Request: fold
Amino acid sequence: MSPTESVMPRILIANDAPDMPDLLGGSLASEGFEVDFVRSGSQAIQVLVSGHFDVILLDWEMPQVPGVRICRGYRARGGAAYIIALSATNTAQTRKECLAAGANAVLSKPIKLEALLTKIKDVVIQSAERSSLTPSSPRSSSIPMAVPEAAQLPVNLIGQTLAGRYEILSKLGEGGMGIVYKARHTSLDRLVAVKVMLHAHTRDSAALQRFQREAKVLSAVEHPNLIFVHDFGETDSKEPFLVMELLEGKTLAEIIEKHGKVPVAVAVEVFVEICEGMQAAHDQGFIHRDLKPANVMLYKKNDKRMLKILDMGLAKFTDSRATKLTQTGQIFGSPLYMSPEQCLSKNLDHRTDIYSMGCLMYESLCGQVPFVGENFVSTSLMHVADAPTSIRDKCPEVPVELEEIVLACLRKAPLERPASMLEVKEQIVKIRQLTNRVSTSH
Reply:
């Protein structure tokens, strides 16, 4: 099937290179594709809000709004176009970041026009063949997007007081679902974190339910390694918000990025605490579904290192409390840490988190994820079919027994993995005791 035998495929090129419209845009148009071109991140956002696209060619270093924010926002709202990320750096870490944000493929600059043109044509033709579009078929409706622009964000919250008691002081960060602010409880004079849902998501009932469920999950499970929700409410403009304890530290992902990996002695302590927190969630019937280094926060309290597991917005009940929101057929999570059953959109239980824990431990110990392909599909296939390479080949200081635990968590069949996070923890504790005895004997 050629492009002209179906609805004219529409392609968005988001790139600030001055010669891109003539070189690539002209070539695609001559092949029968409908091409839109924008030169900045803010322009890309505005176009994506109102239009449907089959392929998005996204410059990762876009001016104004970077490609990673555009990609995450688009995927958070259910955007299904095939995204090709163009990056100035050609490294495994770059591919990992692009795929984690939702890109389907990554190409490095300078762009080889012929190869890129062939890639786009193949993607569009395969998409048309799967959907069996005909010239008379209507184009699917446009996909709304969580837009990180002033019109879509909660209106000027800094300086405002929510629910009469939470004074918003500054912005701490943002993600696909919402913005996290530093705030002060005016009555108690206590600093807290307030997570406010992006305004665009309030019109999406599924996204709203996920946000509300995060509040219920975090308030239902009390454990020192799980972040606690103090309150839940709505802003004056009807954006829901969560009030959580304020944590000021670094995520495990940031630590790995800075230092390359985590020393074994520190890693085993971190792993034990993650297992304890996750076991508490599993005991209450919750599975996380997005356990990864970026969702583990390390911080200090009274000069003692503390750990919290973050972002339970994708958590799922494992019993009859589950809703349509999390039925089989929907894929949630980060592809670099997803279990084989998650990649295949099968029914999930707590053992999907055990697999993700294996990915997390593998990356912490050697600085690399066990599987990373050129795109989402190839990465998923690696999770399903490939065996991970040895950790000790890269990092011989890792004890054999610890590597065995990690690889056990990464077994393809859920029933072949450790039965619980408690079992994983107990095995790690034995290794810690053995390591301590060895170190004290020298």
Notes: The longest strand covers residues 166-174. Residues 192 and 246 are 5 Å apart (CA to CA).
